[in-house]
Amino acid sequence: MPTSQNQAQAQPKLPYRTTGTDGKPAWLITRYDEVRQALADPRLSLDKSNALPGMYSGLSLPPALDVNLLNMDPPDHTRIRKLVTKAFTAGRVEQLREPIHQIANDLLDDLVTKDHADLVGEFAAPLPIMVICDLLGIPAEDRTDFRAWTDALVAPDPAKPQQAKEAIGAMMRFYPALIARKRAEPGDDLLTAMIAARDEDDRLSEDELTSLAFLILFAGYENVVHLIGNAILGLLDNPEQLKALQAERSLLPAAIEEFARYDGPAPLAVRRFPLSDVEIGGVTIPQGETVLLSLGGANHDPSRFAEPERLDLRRNATGHLALGHGIHYCVGAPLARLETEMALAAVLDRLPALALAVPRDEIRWRPSMRTRGLLALPVTYGKSGKTERPGP
C-alpha cells in the first residue's frame, strides 16, 4: 500500500495548518474536489514573490535556474509555455515511439545476460534521461550524472549538506556551457529551437532560456523514472494485476493512468500563495501563506475513486491529478505516458518471470516529500530473460 495513501487516509478532510517542506507553516489540502479546483485557481500564485516575508523559505536557486514555469504566473507563464508545448503534443510524441522502444530494449539487452538487476538504477533511471537528452539535442559526450544532481536537490542527504550547493554549482557550469556549444553547432532539436526563440525572436531572456533547459531536463527525468519504478513495484505487489496485464496487453495504455493515480511520482503539487484571502473547503487561508496541494491525497479520495487503496488496471482512472490540472498541467505528460508504456511493455515482454530479489520490507523509498520514488528496485528473473526483441 503506497505511503502516500496511508498519509492521505490519516489526514483531516478540511484544509489544515501543517509544516511545509521548508519547515515553515503551510496549509495542506487533501480532498479531490478542492485540490482539483485549487490547481486551476488563478487566485493561487506560483510566484514566490507573493509569499509573505518569513513564511516561505523553500528551495533556493540562482536566477539562471529559478526563472522557470514552476515559479511563474501568466502572462510570463503563458509566453514561455507556448515555446515548448508544440514539442510535446500527442502527435509529435507518437513519433518517438520507435526511438523509445529502441532505448528500452537496448537497456534490457544488457540485463537479460544475467538473472537479476536493479530496475531503477539500470533501467527506469537511464531510459528517460536518454530520451529527454535526445529530444533536447544533448550529445552523448555532454551527458553527465543528472540523477545525482536531482537527488541532491529533491532528496538531500542530511549528513551531506554541501551536496545541494555542489549540485547547483555544477548545473550553473553545465547549462551555460551546453547552450554556448549548441549556439555554435545548432541542430534539429528542442534546445536549438529554444535558443532561436531567445536570439532571433527575443521571446526569452538568457536566464529564462537557461531555466527552461534546466526544467525540461529535470522534470523530464524526475517524474518518469518514478512513474516507471513505482508502476513495476505496484505490479509485483499485486500479482493478479501483473498476470492480467501479461495476458491482455491492450490494458496497458489505460493502466498507465491507474499507475499514476495509485502511486504517482509527486505527493504534492508545487506550492502556491494566495493573492488575497481565499476560502477553500470552508476555511479562510490568508494572503501570502503557503498552500500545499496533496496530489496523493486527492488521488486516494474515496469520494472520487472507489476503493482507492486497490490497484485496479481496469479502473477508469481518468481525471486523476498525478500530472496536475489547469494551466500548470505537466507539459510533458504525453511523453511521460509513452515512455512508461514502452518501458513496461519491454519489461513484460522480456522479463516474464519478474520477482522481487529481496523481502518486500527491504524496499526503500527516497527520503523526500517532493517526490515519491524508489532508491532501488532489486529484482530477479532467473534465466528467463528473452534475448529476442519484439516490435514496438
Largest sheet: 3 strands, mixed
Radius of gyration: 21 Å
Roughly how much helix do the residues carry, as a percent range? 40-55%
Number of helices: 16
**What fraction of residues sit in β-strands?**
5-15%
Explain briefly what this protein structure is.
The chain has 392 residues and is mainly alpha-helical. 47% of the residues lie in helices and 8% in strands.
What does the model show?
The chain is mainly alpha-helical and 392 residues long. It has a single domain (3-380), classed as Cytochrome p450, CATH 1.10.630. Helices cover 47% and strands 8% of the residues. The model is unreliable at 3-9 (pLDDT under 50).
Topology of this protein?
Elements: H1 3-10, E1 16-19, E2 25-29, H2 32-39, E3 44-45, H3 63-66, H4 76-85, H5 90-94, H6 97-111, E4 116-118, H7 120-124, H8 126-136, H9 146-154, H10 162-184, H11 190-199, H12 206-237, H13 239-247, H14 252-263, E5 273-274, E6 278-280, E7 283-285, E8 291-293, H15 295-299, H16 333-350, E9 355-356, E10 378-380
Parallel strand pairs: 2-8
Antiparallel strand pairs: 1-2, 3-5, 4-10, 6-7, 9-10
Helix pairs in contact: 6-8, 6-16, 8-12, 9-10, 12-14, 12-16, 14-16
Notable traits:
392 residues, mainly alpha, Cytochrome p450, three-stranded mixed sheet, 16 helices, 47% helix, globular
